Amino acid sequence: MSSDIADPSLAYEGAKRIEWADRTMPVLRRIRERFAAERPLDGLRVAACMHVTTETANLIRTLQAGGARVALAASNPLSTQDDTAAALAVEYGAEVYARAGIDREGYYRHIHQALEIGPDLVLDDGCDLVNILHLERTDLLDGVKGGCEETTTGVIRLHQMAREGALRFPMVAVNDTDTKHMFDNRYGTGQSTLDGIVRATNTLLAGKTIVIAGFGYCGRGLAERARGLGARVVVTEIDPVKALDAVHQGFSVMPMADAARHGDVFITVTGNREVIDGTHLAVMKDGAILANSGHFDVEIDIPALAALAVEVHRDVRPQADEYVLADGRRLVLLAEGRLVNLAAAEGHPAAVMDMSFADQALACAWLAAEHAALAPAVHEVPKEIDTEVARLKLAAMAISIDVLTPDQEDYLHSWRLGS
Q: 138-184: per-residue pLDDT in tens?
């Protein structure tokens, strides 16, 4: 099988790290055992565009256990772990197209190479693979039964495609499950983003003013954890309901135009572009740190930052570039404006991705069985899948919960009983 990886000799080290991650992914491990017995994906070809990490590797192993042939391209050049890519290709028999730090041209070439598998199912992080299928590889569309999207950014793009009547096959919004929102977005992004910032800068967050753009699940997790580390937290929002929620959780809320003057650290998690623009950058204090945890590198206006700078000092620390403005102020951009939690750290802990990838695996099996009855639209993950993942996680943690009695079940499904 073909692959394009940086160094096959890294496979042994990669396999050790994949197995280490697997220790804290008990839900996915149980699903892998079930898939090996039931083979719900037998004979199917899966093309995936995802972050090439140890956790993703265990999802790929699960799909393979279910009978699938898998081709994987990286969804971000800075998040690729070359040893993981090598292990997947050499030790586990996947087709892998991923090299850390590859340029834009190589990034898209790898997606095209993964699509050469002629996919029955697709997995996407950010909708780039699905986008290419619809714009450049329309010859493959008739063979695609469906797919899964794991990011907020990707789901936004898919909904727009569906509204315009452009989407040609059913896509499951794995991003929107409760287990994904609660753990991946809130706990995973919350912890791993701050981990990336600390690794890249070795800054003390206690006492700092941290400005968080966006108060969705990711922003909430970030705000909670930043406050827990002793930071003063400012939230910027466009949604009045989310802004009201932030206020009642005790966070300061203001427009970015005001927050820009006060922040020590800025973190964007909105899924939109130019959330921090040139007017904001122009008034920031000396030494302000700029980080993004949205999927694409458009949330911070990097061209505007470059235009303001008279000097740029690359890699003043790993994954930290210093932009010197005309008046001597310095702004520090982390991870080139890409996902700081994956580029400057290791992304979410495996225990978090356990549930997200369990959702993905079970959604793939569901699509394989039900695709013929599904319209080309964006579909929610069936509630029973989300519930099963949560139940398996609780079981792995040796936690029991109550169950309804027959009388309670009858009461909830009856309208005849009064007060």
A: 999 999 999 999 988 899 999 999 999 999 999 999 988 888 877 88
Q: How many CB atoms within 10 Å of residue 226?
A: 27
What tokens does 278 get? 């040139």
Annotated binding site for substrate: 53, 125, 150, 180, 184
Q: By residue range, what is the domain housing residue 245?
A: 188-343
Taking a C-beta distance cutoff of 8 angstroms, is the pair 266, 256 a contact? Answer: no
One DSSP character per residue, 50-84 reads E--SHHHHHHHHHHHHTT-EEEEEES-TTT--HHH
Domain annotation covers residue 281: yes
**How many domains would you assign to the chain?**
2
Rounded percentage of the chain residues whose pLDDT exceeds 90 = 90
Give the CATH number, domain containing residue 266. 3.40.50.720
Which is it for the CA torsion 172, 173, 178, 183, positive or negative? positive
Output the CA angle 268-274-275, nearest 5 degrees: 40
Exposure b/e, 18-38, CB count within 10 A at least 16 = b? beebbeebbbbbbbbebbeee
Q: Give dist(CA 132, CA 84) in Å, integer.
A: 25
Instruction: Give the residue numbers of the binding site.
Output: 53, 125, 150-153, 180, 184-185, 214-219, 237, 272, 293-295, 341
Maximum separation of any 2 CA atoms in the chain, in Å: 74
Q: Are residues 335 and 354 both part of a single domain?
A: no
